[in-house]
Amino acid sequence: SRLVQMVQPTAQSENVRVALLALRVLYNFSFDEALRGQLVESGMVQLLVAHLRSPPFRHIVLRLLYHFSMDDRCRSLMAYQRDGMVMLLQLVVHFPEARVGKDLVALVVNLATHQRAAEVMVGS
Question: What is the pLDDT of residues 7-54, one digit of tens each?
Fold first, then answer.
């Protein structure tokens, strides 16, 4: 979709505020199954895994990845992002609060239903 093509590059902006706004727009797009598929096909998973390293982006990135993890094909793509899988587990283990965030738990549970993703998690 032209909308995805217009907004996605902005999510890579050097300006954190601009990138966050773009990610929020993409999150809204992700409620639509067709747009979510286009986001996945456009390589968005790699960008989100890269943004996961940066604390200001984590909350919105976890929500986007959760939406993506509802799709089998996307779970498969995410399973091959070993760095991202390890990072998600590290976030669970070292969560700063007594209770792990719902978005993070939901994402990890969804990913654990994919055989390759579960193997990567257990192996890390």
Answer: 999 999 999 999 999 999 999 999 999 999 899 888 899 999 999 999
The CA distances from residue 30 to 33, 34, 68, 69, 76, in Å, are 7, 8, 8, 11, 18
Of the candidates 5, 78, 10, 13, which has an alpha carbon nearest to the alpha carbon of residue 35? Answer: 5
- Which positions ≥6 away from 114 have C-beta within 8 Å? 72, 75, 76, 78, 79
3-state secondary structure of 53: coil
* Domain span holding position 90: 2-123
Residues 6 or more apart whose Cβ sits within 8 Å of residue 65: 45, 48, 52, 78, 107
Q: Which two tokens stand for residue 64?
A: 């986007």
CATH number at residue 42: 1.25.10.10
**Which residues, 6 or more positions from 120, have their beta carbon under 8 angstroms from its beta carbon?**
79, 82, 85, 86
Average pLDDT of the residues in 59-78: 92
Number of domains in the chain: 1
